[in-house]
């Protein structure tokens, strides 16, 4: 049995090609809720057991080469201790599921978790049984959660029963299922600027025969241990007039009811963003007794406004001068400031010898921050030297530079005029004597 298990899980992602479709085998984890410590008051424990999931009939692009795809071969001897699931995904189709074909070659980690699912109002031991699957691919905006329903298996004396789940297996030792409902998103995280708008992706699909006609969509926001409802919508998929009910707790949030009914698009638009809109958004779609959800992280970013205290910097013969760099109205908090100098004879700027001092962060009413840096420019700086303030911040693709060129000191015209007047007065005084 150990050898069979090693061979099975050696196929992290394998495929068997068909007519324009492929089968993908994923290494997953079966997550089961256990009993608390001592059986009382210890909280729930979770066991995690290796499992495999075979997804049948994933659509393959017409230009995809199928010749090198390796067929999946189930264990030659069925093992009732293994967790081996098979599921058809041709209807409903999993959007962008073709990324699973290339994840292994691209060295992208696929996260796959399977757990028992109990529809609302049903018993866990009911027939058929249901499982929830959560799938995501590292480095790709692919995330989905779907519900699998076990298929009817004729039970006789030779039928194998999965030892832990107590469910009948096929003759090859697999648990036969079909996908009946899924919720997906085309993004895992998104960044948006203050006062801007953002579209948070969420969609759902079900089998051709609907599970129910009424669909409920709820968007919630979780941030720093606190959560609240942003928007809730209920509507009927048969497009009954007047069936849509929307309750929005956040002004400027909306879901298009027509797209919900026509396309299964439950995406939410949020306008006039504020810092308080940042956090984890949870999209939950419920159809009949079934529901699934997706999670999207929204980051609020605002690039800083950067300026120098002086537009011109003229050297003084004997005294140093203070030059300040102001970094205003940025979010989030982390910002770095550095000073550089570029002399007329250099090709690359060098770090300024004295980086000066930083003010404390100041927070404004809109929750953005400001910071200032101050340096002392000595009178010995070579005229023509460019002094650069460089600012680093998450909202900037590249560091932002502002600069000023040091100019040579000029004779003070006031003293020249005063001297000229004194000499003139003395001259006329001598003449008049």
Polypeptide structure, described:
The structure is a single chain. With 433 residues, this protein is mainly beta. 9% of the residues lie in helices and 44% in strands. A 7-stranded mixed barrel has the order 2-3-4-8-7-6-5.
In short:
The protein has 433 residues and is mainly beta. Helix content is 9%, strand content 44%.
What's the topology here?
Elements: H1 2-10, E1 15-17, E2 21-33, E3 46-59, E4 84-88, H2 99-102, E5 110-117, E6 130-137, E7 143-150, E8 175-185, E9 189-193, E10 198-200, E11 203-206, E12 214-223, E13 226-236, E14 245-248, E15 253-255, H3 257-263, E16 268-270, E17 279-287, E18 290-301, E19 305-308, E20 313-314, E21 321-330, E22 335-342, E23 350-351, E24 357-358, E25 362-363, E26 369-377, E27 386-393, E28 400-407, H4 413-432
| Amount of helix | under 10%
Total helices: the number is 4
Protein structure class = mainly beta
- Amino-to-carboxy terminus distance: 128 Å
Largest sheet: 7 strands, mixed, barrel
The order of strands across the largest sheet is 2-3-4-8-7-6-5
Shape: elongated
